[in-house]
Amino acid sequence: MHEYRRQPLLLAIVLSSRMYRDGTLRDSDFPLDTALRYLRDERAVVWLDLPPSAAAELRKVSAELDLHRLAVEDALGAHQRPKLERYDTHAFLVTYGMTADPATSQLTATELSVFITERALITVRQNDNLDAGEFGERWDTTPELAGSGVAFLLHGVLDYVVDQQLAAVQELDTRIEELEDLVFTEHADNTAVQRRWLRLRKSVSRARRILLPMREALTSLLRREHTVFDGSGQTDSQLLPFFQDVYDHVVHAAELSESLREHVTTIREAQLNVQSNRLNTIMKKVTSWAAIIAVPTGITGFYGMNVPYPGFQATFGFWTALVAIVLLPILLYTLFKGRDWL
User: CATH classification of 2-275, choosing from 3.30.1490.20, 3.20.20.70, 3.40.50.150, 3.30.460.20?
Assistant: First the structure.
């Protein structure tokens, strides 16, 4: 009885949503009961965006669209790898939006699950870091493509997500270049450099784990014999160049993440080499100065013996020792300086 009283309140929740009919936007931001009614309209193309907390709403939509139970569980869960799975009545895509913090080089990834059916696109976000309103802005910039139905909606979502991914990787590239400059700074803080290097390495590795499977998923999505964009099973030829552009951006981001991985490794090796070279230089200078200091020390030690020696208790012995103490260090300093040991 308690559940029965909650049901009307559940259906009254207003969702981020759109309904197109005949290539024209007819309604937006409607409640779930209206969405379910539109899903039964064979002329309507519907987009619904659900937060992961809306499990009840997703299950109602799942029952209406006959979504596979495993796909629904993946959408309600978290930490799925980017993938594209095909079922009898729909396809299920998992992707990630990404942002990189310029101050900390921290990569934030937001999981997005997408159900692709013949007349509906259902997106499920794990949190609000991915703004569903951006999808609408992409669709509004190309309203002439709305006649392509679900393929049009899917392109807007992927275009926004992939642009985010590429921007995040490019931001990491900028931070890595700054780190590279910092490594060769004369008085670099090695602890701070190593801490930044570890953060960047972690962020690049995470980006790579997202982008490589994402490239495979889009490759599979673009195969004509497997697409679920319209009733004929063929991708709308008008949208093919747009999807190809999205795919090119994914490939570019994936290749950039690969090069950044190598770049980060090279920076660490360069830092170790710089530290080793600086240590060698320091040791070389210390050794050279020790050799210079050892000469007058040896001379004074020799003349400090309590036994007779040439010049003992004679004036010329004193002057001989004094001249040797002054000239030999100068000679050694000149020699070491000429060989760049000092």
Answer: 3.30.460.20
